[in-house]
Each structure stands twice: as structure tokens, then as C-alpha cells.
Amino acid sequence: MQIPNLAPIPELFVSYESAQKLKSEAADLKSHDLSPRQICDLELLMNGGFNPLKGFLGQEDYDGVVDNMRLADGTLWPMPITLDVSEDFAEGLTLGEDIALRDQEGVILATMTVTDRWTPDKSREAEQVFGADDDAHPAVNYLHNTAGKVYLGGPVVGIQPPVHYDFRARRDTPNELRAFFRKVGWRRVVAFQTRNPLHRAHQELTFRAAKEAQANLLIHPVVGMTKPGDVDHFTRVRCYEAVLDKYPASTTSMSLLNLAMRMAGPREAVWHAIIRRNHGCTHFIVGRDHAGPGKNSAGEDFYGPYDAQDLVREHQQEIGIEMVDFKHMVYVQERAQYEPNDEIADKDNVTILNISGTELRRRLREGLEIPDWFSFSEVVEQLRNRYPPRSKQGFTVFFTGFSGSGKSTIANALMVKLMEMGDRPVTLLDGDIVRKNLSSELGFSKEHRDLNIRRIGYVASEITKNGGIAICAPIAPYATTRRAVREEIEAYGAFVEIHVATTIEECERRDRKGLYKLAREGKIKEFTGISDPYDVPENPELRVETENVEVDNCAHQVLLKLESMGLIAG
Ligand code: PPS
């Protein structure tokens, strides 16, 4: 097991000439546009990362994998690699027919002969593979709410790998890595799987693992799809590059793996081990709660903390890779070094320091110190860049209220006050301006109002994502639409909902544009508050009254709110 066979492993690609021919013939085939996850799966099928699979699983293999982690011929394989499609697409196919598999731009990557088509029992798959039919598990959620209803299976013929424009030199196929190990004479290689930035504890444990196994180290991070909410791979790769310099020269290398993780704990760990064996590694580090999906809907862990280690240990011989268990490293202040937690004999007499992921995120968010013992300054710098403190992040102020309530006036006053501060660009998306520039073809039906607010939400989310301040001032009468926009924006920064609570009677009394009169006369239909609904916000960040209050004062209340939320400096 320790002396790897670094001979090339089978790929599913055809020669360049055959690929050109297949490509032109494939133009006549029915096409399936692959999802991002299927593109990741196809890449690893074609380049041998999923060896011995020769295509997407057929029904017999699928049943074997789901029920007992084995293909129909008995080979160990823990994860269903399936091509899910819509019922409509599946119905139009004849078994034995070839289909073209295209990426999201329409480029043909492969063809597949459809040998199997079936409607899976997804609840059974969830129970057997992921341990529970619970949508709190990201892969179960995907299975029920994203994946198509029907599975197709059959052998794949590879035409070209998916194109990556980022970090090209850092991506290797199994055969490229095998060739690299041959070239540099690495006979024992321990792989470290990760989807998180590496800090000092990781560097210590990987270095120790390599020393223990008398092996070289391969940092093998996943850059395909990881757990929703993870640090994006662009930031992570820059962090990994910084950490690479901390290992003794020529002992360690890094390669990026375009895997779509399922967060399936023990089964996933076995899958990861097989993939690393295929990439020419002899050892594989498995930690506590490897590929854990977080808590289930009852607030409990899906898997036991050492289930993954147990399952890999049970199958390591058969896979042909040796498991190295991941030690939980903690920092011992008195000795100024990291030590495995379970090897510290004098725990009562020393100070053990640790910073959890949650605590790290809090420190980043609030711009607090991240100590040198915890991470490397280059890594912290990358993370601070990516996660600036709230006072430097983008955010959206979303005013809602009746026509004539004073939204636009307060929004304009707020805009100039924020521009006076000058640290972030400010954009005003006022109701009237948006209707002129973005939504000129829309009317005031529920459907059109929703579309209008969605567009505003999209533009505001882009501004927020890029570190600017978006001020929106539409009527936005529907609570569900406001909630959807809030969710979209909160992925990037704060969403501050301000209800301008001027009563409809007061708005009608002011009637600055003369619209209420026309609405009363029936000359304007579906007029909010008169002949159309308005859902009063239940929990806005701020409610402002405008009767007998100066505009300047209203804008000032908003500024105070932003300050109390840490969005602007006090
Ligand atoms: S919505 O519901 O959020 O899409 O509405 P919004 O785009 O903010 O509306 C912008 C302005 O359109 C004028 N207007 C109407 N308002 C409500 N109902 C009807 N039927 C209507 N027809 C025209 C109204 O003056 C809104 O301007 P504001 O700035 O709110 O006074």
C-alpha cells in the first residue's frame, strides 16, 4: 500500500481527432445542459478522479451504492454519481440513444449513451446515503429541491474537460499529479482535504501527519462546491498560497480539486479517500467530523464525531490508502506551541487557547484583533480584505411606505449626508427613477410591482456586494417580496428596512402629486392604500413618523440607526 503504483489511470477522454469528429456529430444529438454540480462530477469522471466509474451510474449500480456502498460488481463506491434530469427531457429519450452533455455556455464536454432511466426513491437515497431524510442536510435539500426527478445512467465519452480560467496552474488531473510525484520522486504522499482557510493549527497538524507517515504532504483543497456559506475559493486559495511558504521547502505541494462535496460525513470520507488514491496519494488525513453537514432540524449532529474515521479505517485496505487521523491541535500558552489536545498531560497547570470558527467570524466582523498565535498575518490580511468590518462593508437602506409618505425626500437627505461622509459610493434607487430607467414597461399589478421590487433588489444586492451603499425608496407594498429582497441582500451585507409610517389620511391630505385625487375619482386604478393593499412592515429596523417632524430629523434618525448597527462610524 505504501509504494504507490504511479502508472497512469484510465481516463474517459478520446483522442483529439476523435473528439473533433464527435463534437461535430454531437451537434445532432439531444442535449442536456449540465448543472454546476454535474459539471464537477463529469470532470472527475472523465479525468479518472472517480475511477473505476465509467459514466453516470446505471440503476443496478445506483441501488448497490445506495444500499451497501458497492457497485453491482462488488467494487466499493460510497456516493451515487447520478445524472438527474427533468421528466420532460427523460421522456423524449429512447434507451440506447446518445446524448450530448454541455456546460452552461453550451460547449459540448462529453456524450453519454443512455442505458438506464428511472425515477429514484429520493427519500430512500436520503436515508441510506446521508443518514436522514432531512432538508437541513445540504445534499438532501439539493436532492429534493434542486435535482431533477429522473436519473439517467450510462457510459460517458469525454470530449474536453470543463474550462477553468482561475488558478489554472494550480489544478491537476489525477494523471498530472501522478506524473508530478514520479518526477519529484515522492513515494509516500499524505493528502489533506480542506474546504476552509488554513491557520497555524492546520499547518502544525498536517506537518506532524506528514512526519509521522514519513511522507510528503499534498494540500488538496476542494474548489468545486463546498458547504453553503463557506469562504469562497478565490480567497481560500490566496490563503493556501501564503501557508505553503511556511512548510520546509520541497516537502509540500498544493493542488486544487474541482469536487462537488455532498457533506456526507462517513461515506464522504471514504469517497474522498478513493479520490486521493486515484490522484496517487498513499495516505489520507481524516479528522473529527470529516465533511460534516452541521446540525439536523432537531439541532443534533447528523453523524458521530468519529464515524468518518471508523468507516475509512474499516475500508482503507480495500481502497489502497492509509488513514492518518487528524489530531485536535490546541495552543499551549506557557510553552508557546501547538500540541495535540489528547497528549497534554498537565492540562490543569497550563493555559490552553483556541479560537472557534464562530469566534473568528465575530472578530472579523467587528474588526477585532486576531492573535498571531492563531493564524499567519498573510492569511488574516486576506480574510480581512474579504470580510471587512461592518463599517467598511456595503449595505442597503430600504425605505417602504405609501406614495407621498416622504420616502424620497428622506432618502435624498440621507444620501447627501452619507456622501458628505464620503467613505463609500452611494446610489439612490428611488421609486420614480427606477420606473423611468429600469421598469418603464411595468404597471402596478401585483405581478408587475413584484418584478419592479425584485429588479431594485438585484441592483441593490450588486451594489452591496461591491461595497457600496444602496438607498431604495419604492412603495414595495408586499411583505413577501420585501423578505425575498432582504434575503438576497443579506448574503452580502446588511439590509436596513425603514418604514416611513405616514398614514394614508396624511398622504392624501398632502397629495403632492395630485394622484390621490385621481385615485379617488377612479382615474388611477390599483392605487396603494386606496384601491390596492399595503402590508405594514412588522419588524422593520426602524419606523419613522413624518407628521410634525422635520425631514432633517428623520434622516438623522436613520443615521443613528446605521451607527448603532455599526454600519457607519460614530
Ligand atoms: S411599487 O409598488 O413599489 O412598485 O411602486 P413604486 O414603483 O414605488 O411606485 C412609484 C410611483 O408611482 C406612482 N404611482 C402609483 N403608486 C401606487 N399605486 C399606483 N397605482 C400608482 N400609479 C402611479 C406613485 O407616485 C409612486 O411614487 P412615490 O414616490 O411612492 O410617491
Automatic annotation (TrEMBL):
<comment type="pathway">
    <text>Sulfur metabolism; hydrogen sulfide biosynthesis; sulfite from sulfate: step 2/3.</text>
</comment>
<dbReference type="InterPro" id="IPR024951">
    <property type="entry name" value="Sulfurylase_cat_dom"/>
</dbReference>
<dbReference type="Pfam" id="PF14306">
    <property type="entry name" value="PUA_2"/>
</dbReference>
<dbReference type="GO" id="GO:0004020">
    <property type="term" value="F:adenylylsulfate kinase activity"/>
</dbReference>
<keyword id="KW-0418">Kinase</keyword>
<dbReference type="InterPro" id="IPR025980">
    <property type="entry name" value="ATP-Sase_PUA-like_dom"/>
</dbReference>
<dbReference type="InterPro" id="IPR002650">
    <property type="entry name" value="Sulphate_adenylyltransferase"/>
</dbReference>
<dbReference type="InterPro" id="IPR002891">
    <property type="entry name" value="APS"/>
</dbReference>
<feature type="domain" description="ATP-sulfurylase PUA-like">
    <location>
        <begin position="7"/>
        <end position="160"/>
    </location>
</feature>
<dbReference type="GO" id="GO:0005737">
    <property type="term" value="C:cytoplasm"/>
</dbReference>
<dbReference type="InterPro" id="IPR027417">
    <property type="entry name" value="P-loop_NTPase"/>
</dbReference>
<keyword id="KW-0067">ATP-binding</keyword>
<feature type="domain" description="APS kinase">
    <location>
        <begin position="393"/>
        <end position="544"/>
    </location>
</feature>
<dbReference type="GO" id="GO:0070814">
    <property type="term" value="P:hydrogen sulfide biosynthetic process"/>
</dbReference>
<feature type="domain" description="Sulphate adenylyltransferase catalytic">
    <location>
        <begin position="171"/>
        <end position="385"/>
    </location>
</feature>
<feature type="binding site">
    <location>
        <begin position="401"/>
        <end position="408"/>
    </location>
    <ligand>
        <name>ATP</name>
    </ligand>
</feature>
<keyword id="KW-0548">Nucleotidyltransferase</keyword>
<comment type="similarity">
    <text>Belongs to the APS kinase family.</text>
</comment>
<keyword id="KW-0597">Phosphoprotein</keyword>
<keyword id="KW-0547">Nucleotide-binding</keyword>
<dbReference type="InterPro" id="IPR050512">
    <property type="entry name" value="Sulf_AdTrans/APS_kinase"/>
</dbReference>
<protein>
    <recommendedName>
        <fullName>Adenylyl-sulfate kinase</fullName>
        <ecNumber>2.7.1.25</ecNumber>
    </recommendedName>
</protein>
<dbReference type="GO" id="GO:0004781">
    <property type="term" value="F:sulfate adenylyltransferase (ATP) activity"/>
</dbReference>
<dbReference type="InterPro" id="IPR059117">
    <property type="entry name" value="APS_kinase_dom"/>
</dbReference>
<dbReference type="Pfam" id="PF01583">
    <property type="entry name" value="APS_kinase"/>
</dbReference>
<dbReference type="GO" id="GO:0005524">
    <property type="term" value="F:ATP binding"/>
</dbReference>
<dbReference type="InterPro" id="IPR014729">
    <property type="entry name" value="Rossmann-like_a/b/a_fold"/>
</dbReference>
<dbReference type="Pfam" id="PF01747">
    <property type="entry name" value="ATP-sulfurylase"/>
</dbReference>
<dbReference type="GO" id="GO:0019379">
    <property type="term" value="P:sulfate assimilation, phosphoadenylyl sulfate reduction by phosphoadenylyl-sulfate reductase (thioredoxin)"/>
</dbReference>
<dbReference type="InterPro" id="IPR015947">
    <property type="entry name" value="PUA-like_sf"/>
</dbReference>
<comment type="function">
    <text>Catalyzes the synthesis of activated sulfate.</text>
</comment>
<dbReference type="GO" id="GO:0010134">
    <property type="term" value="P:sulfate assimilation via adenylyl sulfate reduction"/>
</dbReference>
<keyword id="KW-0808">Transferase</keyword>
